[in-house]
Amino acid sequence: MRLQKATQCALFAVVELAKDPERQISAADIADKFGISANHLAKVLRDLARARLVESMRGAGGGYRFCGIAKRVTLYEIVSLFEDIDTHDAGFPESGEDADIGKALNNVMNEIEQIAVSTLKSITLTTLLKQMDRIAP
Q1: How far apart are the C-alpha atoms of 35 and 120, rounded to whole Å?
Q2: Which of 33, 70, 99, 104 could form a disulfide with 125 if both were Cys (CB 3.0 to 4.6 A apart)?
Q3: What is the pLDDT of residue 24?
Q4: Which residues touch 17 (CB under 8 Å, ≥6 apart)?
């Protein structure tokens, strides 16, 4: 599964903010840390704020902070804001001479998508943050 740039930005931002929910970080600081466009990230952060995962703090020293519950927020919740990841037909032809092959391939692709969705639904931000702690030098 290849994720769009907006989805990648959202994941970087939410995970960075969830590391310390009390800390406020500017969009520019997050963008600099991950080498992404501050303008693009600002749009993504607005979408995340609408989803009530982050909140914007205005004024001097303002920025964004995580306002969700890391034990409950899954990667699926974040990814599904930016991606159409629900299972659907992969587009192999299911009629004509190769109908059986097309049906079989569509079934396999559908199963792969279901596994990906199930996996994203099973991983919370807390789980991801713990994994990051284990692999950090």
Answers
A1: 25
A2: 70
A3: 94
A4: 23, 25, 30, 54, 64, 65, 66
Tokens describing residue 25: 């970080």
Q: What would the pLDDT profile of 31-63 be if each residue is shown by its tens digit?
A: 999 999 999 999 999 999 999 999 998 877 789
Among the listed residues 58, 34, 54, the one whose alpha carbon sits nearest the alpha carbon of residue 46: 54
In three-state form (DSSP H/G/I as H, E/B as E, the rest C), the secondary structure along 73-101 is CEHHHHHHHHCCCCCCCCCCCCCCCCHHH
Which residue in this structure is represented by tokens 């097309």?
Answer: 102
Kindly state the tokens that stand for 98: 């190769």
Single-letter amino acid code for the residue at 59: G
Q: Report residues of the chain scoring pLDDT below 50.
A: none
CA distance 94 to 96: 7
